[in-house]
Structures are given as C-alpha cells and as structure tokens.
Amino acid sequence: MQELTHYIGGEHVKGTSGRFADVYNPATGEVQAKVPLASTDEIAKAIEIAAKAQPAWAATNPQRRARVMMAFVGLLNRDMDKLAEALSREHGKTIPDAKGDVQRGLEVVEYCIGAPELLKGEYTDSAGPGIDMYSMKQPLGVTAGITPFNFPAMIPMWMFAPALACGNAFILKPSERDPSVPLMLAELMEEAGLPKGVLQVVNGDKEAVDALLHHPVVQSIGFVGSTPIAEYIYGTGCANGKRVQCFGGAKNHMIIMPDADMDQAADALIGAGYGAAGERCMAISVAVPVGHETADRLIEKLVPRIEKLKVGPYTAGNDVDYGPVVTAAAKQNILGLIQSGVDQGAKLVVDGRDFSLQGYENGFFVGPHLFDHVTPDMDIYKKEIFGPVLSTVRAGSYEEAIKLAMDHEYGNGTAIFTRDGDAARDFANRINIGMVGINVPIPVPLAYHTFGGWKKSVFGDLNQHGPDAFKFYTRTKTVTSRWPSGIKEGGEFNFKAMD
User: Fold this and answer.
1) HSE-CB for 2 with a 13 A CA cutoff
2) Do 262 and 126 share a structural domain?
3) Domain limits for position 314
4) 398 near 258, Cβ under 8 Å?
5) Among 245, 346, 377, 477, which has the highest number of CB atoms less than 10 A from its own CB?
C-alpha cells in the first residue's frame, strides 16, 4: 500500500498526525494509496516556512518570477502524459479529459508569464506643487487554496500560478481523494526555479481547513467546492480578516430555441452533460427546450446518442466517453437522486441504473440517465447531482425558459442554442448568471478573461484567473512624495491648495 506525503519546505514529508484517508481506484473500487491528514501543528509548520520564504520571493523582480512560470509551462508539456495518467488513476477521468484538465491550468500559467505588465502601478507627476503620486501592487504574503477533486490539476494552477506570479507564498490543501497530481505540480514548480517553501502542499480534511482559516499569518483563502462549505469558508475567513474568494455549486441550464440546429444542440448536450461523468461545475445538467415540438425533437435526437455512450476505465482507450465517479458515496448519492426523480414523477427516458461493467463490478460506474418532464419542484432539478444525469424541463415560451434559469438559486453558467441573433443578445444581456454561452455549451472563459458565477455559486467580489486574479493576490499601496529643492524658509503647517 502506497503511503503519500505532504510537500513542505521543498521535501516530501510523512504525516505525523496518525490520521489517513483512503485514495481509491474508482474503476475497481480498490484502495490504492493512503494520504496523511494534517494536524493543526503541521499546517502551522508549513505556514512558518512559507512566511520565511516569501519575502525573498517577493523581492525577486516580476520578470524573473515570470521566467519561472515560463519554465514551468515547458515542464508541464514535458510531463503531460505522466500527469494525465496519475490524474486518471485517482479520479477516473479518461486520458484525453485528464490532459484537458492539465491544459486548462497550463493556459492560466501562460497568462501569468505576463506578470510584469499586469503588476504595473500608476503614476501621476505634479499632482500638487512639487508633489508626485504613484501606486504599487504588492503581494499579500502567505496565501492558501482549498481545491476540489474534480479538477486536481486545473484549479490548483488557477490559484497558485497568479498568487506566485504576484510574489506571494502559497499553501495548497488539495482534495484528499486525488492528491498525487498536486504533489507532482509542486515538484515541477521547484524544478522550474521556484525557491523551496514558496509553494507547499499539505493534505488534510476539516482540521487542516480550519487551521488555515484561523491562522493570522494567512492573508487570503481561495476555495472551490460545494455551496454549504463555500459559505462556511467565506464567512469564517472574512470574520478572521482574510481576503476570500469561494466558488460553490451549480445547476447549469441550456435553452434550446425552436430554430436551433437540433443535431448541434444534441451533440452539445451529450458532451456537456455526460463528459467527465457529469462531475464538472460547468456541466449542463438541465436542458430547456422551448415548445413541446422542440422538446420531442430534442429527446428523439438525444436517446440514440446517449445509448451509444461508451462507459469504462481510462485504460480501455481514448474512445471511452466517460469513466467512473470518484467514490462509492458519490455513486450512491447520484442513484438516490435518480430514484427521487422517478418517485416525484419525472419520466426516466434512458435508465442507466442497472449499468454494470464486466470485470469492474466493484467500480464506481454510473450509467447515463435522461429525464423528461422534470419540474422545478423536484429534487433532481433543485440539487446539484454531479453525475451523468440530464434533466429536461419543457418550457412553453422563451420567457418561461429564461425565467427558469434566472429563478434558480445557482448562477454559474448557462447557454442558449439559437439562430436568432436578437434572442441571443437579449439572453446574454438579461440573464443573471456569470458565464454565458451562445451556441457554446460549456462557456468556460479562456485564461485572459475571468471565471466566476453569480448568486449562490460564488462568495466574494473577484473572479478566478484573468485580471481579477492579479487584483485578488495583491494590495495597492499609494505613495505621495515631495522632494524639496533646497532649504525652505521654514515649516509649512497647512496643506497648500492647488492653484
């Protein structure tokens, strides 16, 4: 049995708490490793090391920090296959999906190579008689991130890349379900030239999270996960005077107008609804066809596509559409919600409850499911399922469809499929959701824009990556200076007004 470690002070360090969590192979259901769960003392030790390492890193000029990011990009490309295999082994994603996970994180690192430009301040000469003013963007100090299981490469890089580029130290508390890739990323950052102790990985559970939230040296916390935990971390972190950004749950609607290309819409729903077994915060889990005829046409297109989906382990080849969900508990939660949908009157058009894969009967596989005639009062509509389940809610009109998305408590992403530019423009302008796709099913912004939802999908006022990340990980200091040009006749006790 492999025993994983923390990565503290530039070294792999065994846990000392005596507490461990099991790391499963989701395809077989077997425990393949155990990961240590840090104590409060272990977190404090990592913070102490980070606090000592950070000032020298902050004093390194932004161009040299950017060169470390540039070298890191090269190492990510070099080790892409190794990272993807490790990610798939612990998460269950297909290899192409795992490579996409790494790639979308890599793109944020590429953006951070532009740190010298992004960290420039402002300057005003002659703001007053002999007075100049300028602003500086300075790092916060020791920062931290708590990241989820579903993107064990991408989301850590979304956080630590801009934090480090700004001159901070960063402590990463990854998901204990798939911790190997975050440990590998820390090694690669140091191979790229990052000083030891500036990026550390400490595995753990709520004890580690609370230790980060309450430690006075930690200046900021980033989090991605469920909404209840996001609310807890945001409230606790803010109460302790930290800068906090938390991203929670989602229930993403895709509206299909009567004029949409139905084949295109169906293909988009297959990828957006079932890719990565639905374990994406940007997955489309609700299809909203406008008009019963549109709904009937959509269902007719979806059913054969869903029935042809290939579900299996990542080792079965790159033509596998999706793999297992991450744990047995996740599988049981998904199946419980599916049963609630049946009990509450939704029509289960494609029933994957009896799915079983020969040779992998103990794996955490969930077959694809398609519901029709779902209504907003049902649990499968209200709750985030995080599984390969697509719900169809029929809308009688465009106004009814847009109201569904706007009334839902979550506001992460949404999409509309239409050929009507006026409808698309109206949708984009009116919808109260943070990320919008027009004939694009998963509207995840590229690295030089920002990622973030609205409503109960986000807590905090700055988004992830893009320009917002450089705002989040820096403080602005404004300096007012005056250089006397010789000996003055005496002291001045009044602030002299400008002429």
Assistant:
1) 12
2) no
3) 252-438
4) no
5) 245
Amino acid (one-letter) located at 425: R
- Clarify whether residues 143 and 168 are in a common domain: yes
pLDDT tens across 131-145, in order?
999 999 999 999 999
- 469 Cβ neighbours under 8 A, 6+ residues apart: 108, 158, 162, 163, 450, 462, 463
Rounded CA-CA distance 229/137 in Å is: 31
Q: Are residues 56 and 196 in the same domain?
A: yes
For residues 180 and 242, membership in a common domain is answered with yes
Distance separating alpha carbons of residues 301 and 386, to the nearest angstrom: 23
- The structure tokens 């299909």 sit at 256
CB–CB of 435/451 below 8 Å? yes
Q: Smallest Cα–Cα separation from 365: which of 400, 406, 316?
A: 316
Q: Say if residues 452 and 434 touch (Cβ distance below 8 Å).
A: yes
Q: Letter for the amino acid at 245?
A: Q
Whether residue 269 sits in one domain with residue 244: no
Regarding whether 183 and 300 lie in a shared domain, the answer is: no
Measured CA distances, 286 to 27, 376, 390 (Å): 27, 11, 6
Q: Which residues are catalytic?
A: 281
pTM: 0.94
What are the tens digits of pLDDT across the range 174-218? Answer: 999 999 999 999 999 999 999 999 999 999 999 999 999 999 999
Dig out the tokens for 157 from the structure: 């890089």
Say if CB 139 and CB 447 are below 8 A apart. Answer: no
Q: Give the Cα separation of 227 and 204 in Å (integer).
A: 19
The partner residues of 451 in beta bridges, in order of sequence, read: 464
